[in-house]
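[job 0412] stage=fold_complex status=start
inputs:
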Amino acid sequence: MPTRLSNYFLRTLREDPSDAEVTSHRLLVRAGYIRRQAPGIFAWLPLGLRVKAKVERIIREEMQAAGAHEVHFPALLPREPYEVTGRWDEYGEGLFRLKDRKGSDMLLAPTHEEVFALLVKDLYSSYKDLPLSIYQIQDKYRDEARSRGGLLRGREFTMKDAYSFDYTDAGLDVSYQLQRDAYERIFSRFGLDYEIVQADAGAMGGSKSEEFLHPTSVGEDTFVRSSGGYAANIEAFRTLVPADKDFTALPAAQVFDTPNTPTIQTLVDKANAEHPRPDGRVWTAADTLKNVVLALTSLDGTRELIAIGVPGDREVDLKRVEVAFAPAEVEAANEGDFAKNPGLVKGYIGPWGLGVDETRSAVLGEKSTTGIRFLVDPRVVAGTEWITGANEAGRHVFGLVAGRDFAIDDVVEASDVRAGDPAPDGSGPVELIRGMEIGHVFQLGRKYAEVLGLKVLDENGKLVTVTMGSYGIGVTRILAVIAELNNDAKGLIWPESVTPFDVHVIATGRDEIVFDTSEAVVAAIEATNREVLYDDRRKVSPGVKFGDAELIGVPWIVIVGRGAADGIVELWNRRTGDREQVDVADVAKHFV
Amino acid sequence: MPTRLSNYFLRTLREDPSDAEVTSHRLLVRAGYIRRQAPGIFAWLPLGLRVKAKVERIIREEMQAAGAHEVHFPALLPREPYEVTGRWDEYGEGLFRLKDRKGSDMLLAPTHEEVFALLVKDLYSSYKDLPLSIYQIQDKYRDEARSRGGLLRGREFTMKDAYSFDYTDAGLDVSYQLQRDAYERIFSRFGLDYEIVQADAGAMGGSKSEEFLHPTSVGEDTFVRSSGGYAANIEAFRTLVPADKDFTALPAAQVFDTPNTPTIQTLVDKANAEHPRPDGRVWTAADTLKNVVLALTSLDGTRELIAIGVPGDREVDLKRVEVAFAPAEVEAANEGDFAKNPGLVKGYIGPWGLGVDETRSAVLGEKSTTGIRFLVDPRVVAGTEWITGANEAGRHVFGLVAGRDFAIDDVVEASDVRAGDPAPDGSGPVELIRGMEIGHVFQLGRKYAEVLGLKVLDENGKLVTVTMGSYGIGVTRILAVIAELNNDAKGLIWPESVTPFDVHVIATGRDEIVFDTSEAVVAAIEATNREVLYDDRRKVSPGVKFGDAELIGVPWIVIVGRGAADGIVELWNRRTGDREQVDVADVAKHFV
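[job 0412] stage=fold_complex status=done
writing structure:
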């Protein structure tokens, strides 16, 4: 039986929704697929539900092919397991928390590592039970600060999350690869380009992680890619570290007055004008060392100041710093911080006076006057010379040599990443690309199993901790990405794998022969096992019907109109726009 | 491809879960269908998910047959729509409430009348768009005070909720009947007995409502049924009201000292001994009027005392009183209440001194000394004579006649219902039966549409308020009820309509011919389009395999064992226990 538009719960809209920032959101609302209920929270209308079911079916098929078993967990869970792993706090404001009538803390799960691990702990006890991969397609909750882009980043969203359980590292590698391969098949079936990039495991923890990023201008992530095959998201990018330099022949550092140098450029100009290097090399911004003071707030509320030294031609990328210090929060030091630390002379902060590593500093005869941790960009290797603050107002030190004149506490990936930066694997300069995360695979390792006590007996009867993987695909986000990629000025154009209907038959005109012919055409197409949306509305103009069809985006449209009297209908390819006159008797052949 | 037990996420348990109060809970956990995560909150394991999908499919088919369109709403919703209808407060502690990061109030929806109505308001505007029925199969949340019985009353549970929209009362009748008929088909397909009983609309409001109750000893509801066809749940039961009596010939009321009458029976005995009726009729407990003082607390916190007069042979049923005064909360008056109202002489409260209806009381020359509302059981009709309190310690009034000697403010259904009570429609005495609510249909009428402003233009271009129906089926509860009804001492026995697999094939023994034969049998059965669970485990004893099969409850079991060498297998009917020797070549014929 076809779905008849004369009796279908659908209302297409002429106006774009006022809050729609991206094309997919705009079109999915206008074409009657979804409807907003609250920021980042949507209801699914019949058309949308059909597409969603098809997206889920494809994911389900590939999960089964990968040997994963389907389960389904609640969204509403008790606090305790998340307390044990620390994520009850780590998630910060992103977690929806609530209390039940007895005052027990509960949460709306943003992801389910804890309870999957506990389920396996509950039921399994031997290496013979492993490997195991289980998954669910389920609604998740994250209280995003800014839920934007319709389904691209919702606060309630459907996700496929799978978890693997092994007792050896080699086993985890296999399970991980099975999911990774399944993801490649899934995205191919959706017709989605993707880049597999190295990712930072972030709050998930674990040892290895890769993201599937779909390159798109509406993407919220940035990743880098070299022509030689390196790919990583910005947070996971690692700087190509130069070799240490021989500093035996370098001149001694000197402190100069540097008034009126409010910017790096004015400082560099003054340096080249008044204090040129003896060997004639000019000073550049990259020769200055900018020491930025940041405040870290850990989960227990402890606030610590740190200083990060980066070359003056770079900026500190707070997102990268956040990853380095997760789950602590990072912000710029404020006036109060400076007031409390007179050793920090604003605008003239230098390595002297920073640092907590007294052993290393002592070798260089340094003494920390601030007790503040001093970390540097990986480019600050031994032997590099810098113009940097002298910890005195209006004065800088020139030719300060790392490893000779100052010590560091640690290296940190804090600088921004730029197009042209060399890939760390030597595969050439990188380009920067915007992308949308559509999948993420993690080797969690034993982190969760350890704290949750998930162990099995191995071949020797010894208890060993299980090693886990976690694999997520945003179901509703993928639907939006597909919509984002498949549309034109008139509306959506669905790929055949997820279209809500295979064929959209439109009866135009008032003659009964049109409707009789349409019924016959519909029946013939349905006999080929295709799903038909039949626009049988009697009092709607052809123009409105065509407009609705273009907006809704079923890839094939059959127009039954005046030609019906001569046994002719029109077959319209929504994607190419091609229209073809076809004998009524032959229409169905196009769908065999 | 069969599901192979050697590689399936399943662990059957020998021990009953300690918290299981009912058979379905015990067996579903032991057989590996579900797993508890928190009180009233369960995870679905692969077997359970298969059964749940089949239950949902049947419901979905019948909803489609009834012309309803499927949509899907979020569980997490904003407060506002529920504030408008008053249910944000009315739901009391049963509602899971939370705040998002911006401090906005949100809830986990217990039911979706509000947002369905708003969706239709959003999209539709004409009578031509109606009638419309839309439904979803979706997870709901209710913070039950006592979540018991596993899936029978969960705090997170799956429900099918449908809503109908009409613009005439006659239209609503038709939409209601379509859903009601669909429910009858659904329950028949599940093999569930049910009784359709009149129900009280309760917090849902509306004009007409019926419950589908499955008679079962684990049921939480009680309903009454007469042999003549009357059926109602206890809350909706209406007392057969006797006709008013002529009281012209009755003697005047008299007040007597009645010391040492702590119970109704002692009072009746004293009455018959010391103050017999002139006409010789004996006093019985049913001739005494017991006036019970209760406190109502309305949603805004206002507390009001009321007195309810019921025949002394009846008890006040607080659940029935609660329904009468919903959404106010009802409790017995406390010592403080009595202390504040000296007009209430505990143990001797009588109609004199009660009441707020001064007009009526004035006719009888009464004067309320308490200002407390006085309501009575429907049996207290004009002309009935009572022994009741005289509002003085140690004294009762005899032969106080309703409508002659005292006035009432209102009638209320407050007395308990007992087997043998006459049905209000004259269809004879009722019996009391315990049942489990498995479906509920409501004619909401215009209550929700009115406050939410859901109107459409009618044929005359006039704005008319839409009339709604609401229709719910507990998906997960039904699954539990089916399990509750289909089991024996060994385990579950699924009906064919919802069984996780159609056939369970067990290979017993170590010979390869057993496994080869099993594979052939599995393939032959699958060729008949049946789903097969294949126990191909090599190191598990036949006894354990049989035990698992009985516990899991697939209705047909094929045992491939020693007979395989002779081309013989055993076909086991799990329900009847019958076992039959069958030629390998003929097994599949049993499933054609």
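[job 0412] summary: The mean pLDDT of chain A is 93.
[job 0412] exit 0
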